[in-house]
Each structure stands twice: as structure tokens, then as C-alpha cells.
Amino acid sequence: MTPNEVVLLVTALVVTLAVVAAAGAGILARRDGATYPAALMRAVGAFAATLKLAADVARVLSQFLS
Predict the structure, then answer these.
(1) Contact call for residues 8 and 44 (beta carbons, < 8 A)
(2) In the Cβ-directed half-sphere of 4, how many Cα atoms lie within 13 Å?
(3) Angstrom distance (rounded) from CA 55 to CA 40
(4) What pLDDT was estimated at residue 59?
(5) Is 7 helix (H, G, I), strand (E, B) or coil?
(6) Which of 28, 23, 16 is nearest to 44 (CA)?
(7) From the CB of residue 34, how many other CB atoms can be counted at a distance below 10 Å?
(8) Cα(18)–Cα(36) distance, rounded to whole angstroms?
(9) What per-residue confidence (pLDDT) applies to 9?
(10) Rounded to whole angstroms, how far apart are CA atoms 36 and 44?
């Protein structure tokens, strides 16, 4: 595998994980009685938080690996 393929694979994995986290947050919010717009906002927040966490982990790891 080339480095470009590894980067694309990891990026796809992180985005998939973020979508799953967002779906779970939206479903749990809806089951808790939130309206559809409120549940969507919680899902968007979970998606953004997951991507932010992945970016922070990558930044910290890049400092150790370089």
C-alpha cells in the first residue's frame, strides 16, 4: 500500500465512524423525546465532535512520529 492509499483508507474510516456516532446520537435524542430539529442538531454536534477528536489525535500523533 502506498502512503496515499493509507491516508484515504483512514480518512474513510474516520468519516464512517463519525456518521455512525451522529446516527446514534440522533436516534438516542429522538427516543428521549427531542423534536426532529433538536435531534438533528445533536447528531450534527456528535459528527463535528468526532471529526475534531480525530483531528486532534492525528495532530498529537504527528508530533511524536516526526
Answers:
(1) no
(2) 0
(3) 23
(4) 94
(5) helix
(6) 23
(7) 15
(8) 19
(9) 96
(10) 12
Residues belonging to the chain: 66
Write the pLDDT tens digit of every residue in 41-64: 999 999 999 999 999 999 999 998
Could you read off the pLDDT of 5-24 as tens digits, one per residue? 999 999 999 999 999 999 99
pLDDT interval class at 65 (50, 70, 90): confident
Q: What is the pTM of this model?
A: 0.89
State the Cα–Cα distance between residues 44 and 48, nearest whole angstrom: 6
Burial code of 35-52, b = ≥16 C-beta within 10 A, e = fewer? eeeebbebbeebbeebbe
Q: Residue for cell digits 446520537? A: 25
